[in-house]
Design brief:
Elements lengths: L6 H13 L4 E4 L3 H13 L4 E4 L15 E2 L10 H17 L5 E10 L6 H13 L10 E3 L2 H8 L7 E11 L2 H14 L3 E3 L2 E6 L13 E7 L5 E6 L2 E3 L5 H5 L11 E2 L4 E8 L11 E5 L2 H4 L6 E7 L3 E5 L16 H14 L12 E6 L2 E2 L1 H5 L12 E5 L5 E5 L5 H16 L25 H7 L2 H11 L15 H9 L6 H8 L13 H12 L3 H18 L4
Parallel strand pairs: 1-2, 1-11, 2-7, 4-14, 11-20
Antiparallel strand pairs: 3-6, 4-6, 5-6, 8-9, 9-10, 12-18, 13-16, 13-17, 14-15, 15-16, 19-20
Helix pairs in contact: 2-6, 2-11, 13-14, 14-16, 16-17
Length: about 550
């Protein structure tokens, strides 16, 4: 039976945070923070904890293109980054095979696209060469339009010159983050969502670096209670919110470390474009033409197979006009992505009415000044991410991405174990995540195993104890009531949005779960002793959230 990871676990962990001295406190429950806390927990000999101000992966780490990829476009500028990314892809496929799955990507070439087909073919050969997957992931080039349509579906063939196939991997970013956190929990880490970092309480004597004890104030977002946490080291893994923590640092020098220009990335979710059969689906990479018509440079966007027979289209590169917690798709971004998709799939009717959902994230882009003037004892690790330490002793992790989060965490924990004088034993590249389980013979269980891994046994136990939990939530979706119960008991889903948007992705289906929100909330209320007031508030909050996200449609 999997280990409980529930609202009750959260409450117990908050009490631990109040009373026990930590060795390391990680602030931020996205994929980078998850990677760090898992490495700390697996290393042994370190009392570590993680707090996240919202739900796990509720920021950028649930708003990616859902790819674990090497960054094909970086080949020209940063081959070392691509090599590292390809290596990390192999590791993630090995330790989480049910969550990180190979995906062929077809790079389409039309007349007027900026790069020659032959040049991309050569680059693709080298790109796939960096992967150890062997002949199954061999790159290829197709020039016959009929063969391309047979492979990809009804893509436009006017001016189509051909396509080159490379291999990356697809994942559900929120579930990968959750699985990483649950592995850390399994190995003793103290982990809570909905606990917000507020401020530094003290700045210990800088002359006694090894024996310092920091105190911060934090807030339980659910209850509103404030409390202090004591720790020997603080790691900020807050992604695009890193400067929010840095501005409160006692050694803040007034200089931001991140930039927001071109940092906003929006995706839209559409009914499946191309082949309807998900098992044979390809992802597409296209060069945009909107910018070229205005005298600018073309850029690449993805059209990818998504969950529930959808396609994910993105991403954009714009500047957020609102606070980072309030980013959403703009009218222009939606129109831009629809226009480019319609050009590739002219037979489909694509407009605002066909958009199922939108989501937006903010990239943690490192400012130029940070590369020129590092913190005391700062260390520039790579062009992709930056690990620094402020004069006050707080560690800041800048940059990074989903694919390379494990490597970034390994480098961080190398520094932390040296500081704590603890033996270093990095196990994260070899130990499977708790969701990494083998195939099952029962075909009915295959979906559950692929989604929940070892959590499948807990779901089966729930059903064995109460047969009504095997009933579907609604007839149009595959999810059972037992899965909703498991999201609370085994995945620390606290709110209705946690469950509908990140744990199940029901929010990425037609209607976005607004119509079933009342019955789902009542079910959760019965199982978690929610009052009628709480149930109504959860439904209202989710409905308003979806309406807000869709405001510009």
């Amino acid at each position: 039976m999997p280990i409980e990871f529930s609202p009750r676990t959260r409450s117990e962990n908050i009490e631990t945070l109040k009373t026990e001295l930590l060795d390391v406190l990680v602030v931020g429950g996205g994929i980078v923070g998850a990677g760090v806390i898992r490495d700390l927990a697996l290393n042994g000999g370190i009392k570590s904890a993680l707090i996240e101000q919202g739900d796990f992966a509720s920021g950028t780490s649930s708003a990616t293109s859902q790819l674990v990829h090497g960054g094909f476009r970086y080949l020209k500028h940063d081959r070392e980054l691509v090599k590292m990314s390809r290596k990390e892809r192999e590791i993630l496929q090995r330790i989480a095979p049910n969550l990180v799955k190979p995906l062929p990507l077809a790079i389409l070439f039309y007349k007027g696209d900026p790069y020659p087909l032959v040049g991309i073919q050569a680059a693709a050969y080298y790109y796939n060469y960096l992967s150890k997957a062997g002949k199954a992931e061999k790159s290829k080039v197709l020039r016959d339009s009929q063969k391309i349509q047979h492979l990809l579906g009804p893509v436009a063939t006017d001016t189509l010159k051909g396509c080159v196939v490379i291999w990356d991997s697809t994942t559900d970013d929120a579930r990968l983050t959750l699985a990483t956190l649950k592995d850390a929990h399994r190995h003793g880490a103290v982990i809570t969502n909905y606990v917000r970092f507020l401020d530094f309480v003290n700045q210990p004597d800088t002359m006694d670096r090894e024996n310092r004890v920091y105190k911060i104030t934090a807030e339980d977002v659910i209850s509103g209670q404030r409390f202090e946490i004591s720790t020997r080291k603080i790691v900020s893994a807050t992604g695009p919110w890193s400067d929010h923590v840095w501005r409160k640092d006692p050694s803040y020098d007034g200089m931001p470390r991140l930039v927001t220009k071109n940092a906003q990335g929006t995706h839209i979710v559409l009914p499946r474009c191309g082949k309807a059969d998900a098992s044979g689906a390809y992802g597409l990479v296209i060069s945009t033409q909107s910018e070229m018509r205005q005298g600018g440079k073309s850029r690449g966007i993805f059209i990818l197979p998504g969950p529930h027979n959808t396609s994910i289209v993105g991403t954009t590169e714009t500047t957020p006009e609102e606070d980072l917690s309030s980013v959403r798709a703009s009218t222009d971004e939606v129109a831009y992505l629809l226009s480019e998709t319609q050009r590739i799939f002219p037979e489909q009717t694509l407009n605002n009415d066909t958009v199922i959902a939108t989501y937006t994230g903010t990239r943690p882009l490192i400012a130029d000044n940070q590369l020129q003037r590092g913190f005391e004892n700062g260390d520039f690790v790579s062009r992709d991410h930056l690990i620094t330490e402020s004069p006050s002793g707080t560690m800041y992790l800048y940059g990074g991405k989903l694919t390379t989060h494990r490597q970034m965490a390994e480098e961080t924990v190398d520094l932390l174990t040296a500081f704590l004088n603890v033996p270093r034993d990095c196990k994260t590249a070899d130990r499977p995540l708790p969701n990494a389980v083998g195939e099952v013979s029962n075909i009915d269980a295959e979906r559950l195993v692929k989604r929940y891994g070892e959590g499948y046994s807990a779901i089966q136990t729930f059903i064995a104890e109460d047969a009504t939990l095997a009933e579907p939530v609604v007839s149009s979706l595959p999810f059972t009531k037992a899965e909703l119960l498991y999201a609370s008991w085994g995945e620390m889903a606290i709110t209705l949005e946690d469950l509908l948007w990140r744990r199940t992705r029901i929010g990425w289906t037609p209607g976005q779960g607004v119509d079933i929100a009342p019955q789902v909330a009542r079910f959760l209320g019965e199982k978690n002793d929610w009052s009628d007031t709480r149930i109504a508030a959860e439904v209202k909050a989710y409905s308003e959230r979806i309406a807000w996200l869709n405001f510009n449609l």
